[in-house]
Each structure stands twice: as structure tokens, then as C-alpha cells.
Write a structure and sequence with these properties.
By secondary structure, the chain is an alpha/beta fold. It has one domain: Rossmann fold. The chain has twelve helices and six strands. A six-stranded mixed sheet has the order 3-2-4-1-5-6, sandwiched between helices. Strand 2 and strand 3 form a beta hairpin. Helix 3 crosses helix 5. The two termini are 26 Å apart. The relative contact order is 0.18.
């Protein structure tokens, strides 16, 4: 059984995957790596295919058929010795719908962080970004790793947003990325309300054990009398996977953004907030 956690990134997915990996019978993966980068690769890497899946639903079906088919899932279960594999990754927002359509037992959990704090966390104007989930400043020199990851990052493919893309700075590009990613999560929840749920990232602050409990409840991966003790131990054991933004944010609060940037932030935030409130019946 394979379940997915999907988000824009910068939503504690490394930490959550490390917590889940300590739950009995569960192999917690981050972007296919069990126990994050220090564990075995249980699932084939998806990077360049992320943009392909975003651009073309048929490509998403093909990618799932090649890299998330039942043989791949069974091999991951065998290698980990677990009955359940949970993969937390940004690319799950683009392949999740295809996997839900082909795997009737798959569940998807989306995690949504507020737009402004995501953009501030994900935007780098200078220096190497150690976790490059967002669009950097267009003029920022990139390392080979940043260039490689950027090749799979989603971007507009048609319409007025594609026309404006070359004029947008990093803030506008990352507001767009946030809106598009979370729109995909809402689409999946609307299509499969019984198997897709969404948690608010803000609920993690100051209540890590409770948040991880929410995760396992939504994914239905743990049922035991020792529920709370297991999750408290898992959270304590995963503290080294809490990623802290080194050096602070490189862009200011939205009060110091341009008018166009603030307008784009307000419209994107209002759109997603409205969709999140309108839960499917």
C-alpha cells in the first residue's frame, strides 16, 4: 500500500517522513528515500517528470505506470519490511491524481502553508539554496544541483501567465507556484473526498505530536492501544530532521513588496482559502 503526502515543500515534510518511519509497519519516505537522504531509495526518483506530469495528464499516468506501479510498491514494501509506504514529496501534487485513479487503496494528504510565509521561505536571491523548492531570483547564479532541480519545477505552459513569466521576479513566480500546487491538492480532494484530506501547516506550530497524530489518522496507518506513546517517541526521534531556514529570509514581509506582488498574493491567498473552506460534501 502506498500513500502520499503532497505540498509545495517547506512544510516540514522531511520531519513528518522521519516520524512516520518510526511507526510500526510504516516506511516513511521523503522524495523516495526512506529516513530521508540517509536511508535506502525505496521509490524511483521523480524530478524532471514533475513538470511533465504538470503539463500533461497523460504524462502523469505514464509516469505513475512506470515509477509507481504495483511491482514498484511491492518491491518497496519488501525492501523495507513494511506493509505501508508513505512518500512525502512536492511532486505528489502533480502525480497524485493519476495514482488515485489507478490505486483504489491509496490515500493522499495535502499540507498547505500560508502563501506569504512559503514565498519568503522558498525564495533565494543570493547564495546556494540547500532546499530549492521555489523559484530563485532570475538573475541568481545557480549551482549544478539547483539547475537540475529547477528543470522539473512547474511553470506556466500557456496563456497570459506564460506571457508574463519572463517579466516576473521570484516573488511573483513563487506566488504562482503556491497557487498552482495547492489548486492541484484541492482538485484531488474534490474528486476523491473519501481518500484525500488537507491539513493546515500552521497547526504544526507548537504541537508536533498532535500534528503527526493528525497525519496518521488521515492516512489511516496506525491503530494500536499505544497510539500516543508511539507518536510521542516518533516525534522525539525525528527532531534532527527539523529544517531551519539558515540565515533568515532573504525577502521582506509583504508590506514591503511591490503593489503588483501584494495584489498577486492577495488574489492567490483568497482563491485557495475559499476552496479550502468549501469542503466537498
Amino acid at each position: 500500500m502506498l500513500h502520499l503526502i503532497a505540498s509545495t515543500g517547506r512544510t516540514a515534510t522531511s520531519f513528518i517522513a522521519a516520524c512516520l518511519d518510526q511507526v510500526p509497519g510504516v516506511a516513511g519516505c521523503h522524495e523516495g528515500h526512506q529516513r530521508n537522504d540517509d536511508g535506502p531509495d525505496l521509490l524511483p526518483m521523480i524530478n524532471l517528470e514533475n513538470f511533465q506530469a504538470f503539463r500533461d495528464p497523460e504524462a502523469a499516468v505514464r509516469i505513475v505506470g512506470e515509477k509507481r506501479n504495483q511491482d514498484v510498491i511491492d518491491q518497496a514494501k519488501s525492501a523495507s519490511g513494511c506493509d505501508v509506504v508513505v512518500d512525502a514529496a512536492y511532486y505528489n501534487a502533480t502525480i497524485g491524481a493519476a495514482l488515485l485513479a489507478t490505486n483504489s487503496d491509496t490515500r493522499v494528504l495535502g499540507i498547505v502553508r500560508d502563501c506569504e510565509s512559503f514565498v519568503r521561505s522558498a525564495t533565494w536571491l543570493s547564495g546556494e539554496d540547500p532546499m530549492p523548492v521555489g523559484w530563485p531570483a532570475p538573475t541568481k547564479p545557480l549551482t549544478a544541483r539547483e539547475r537540475f532541480i529547477g528543470m522539473g519545477r512547474i511553470r506556466p505552459t500557456a496563456g497570459p501567465e506564460l506571457d508574463l513569466w519572463s517579466e516576473w521576479e521570484a516573488i511573483q513566480r513563487n506566488v504562482w507556484l503556491w497557487r498552482e500546487t495547492n489548486s492541484r491538492l484541492c482538485d484531488m480532494r474534490d474528486e476523491h473526498p473519501d481518500r484525500v484530506s488537507i491539513l493546515n501547516f500552521d497547526a504544526l506550530r507548537g504541537r508536533a505530536a498532535e500534528f503527526v497524530k493528525d497525519v496518521v489518522v488521515e492516512l489511516e496507518v496506525l491503530s494500536t492501544p499505544d497510539y500516543d506513546d508511539i507518536l510521542t517517541g516518533a516525534v522525539d526521534g525525528a527532531q534532527d530532521r527539523v529544517n531551519v531556514r539558515s540565515g533568515g529570509y532573504q525577502i521582506p514581509a509583504s508590506t514591503d513588496w511591490s503593489n503588483n506582488e501584494r495584489d498577486m498574493l492577495e488574489h492567490a491567498s483568497a482563491e485557495i482559502e475559499t476552496r479550502l473552506k468549501n469542503e466537498p460534501s
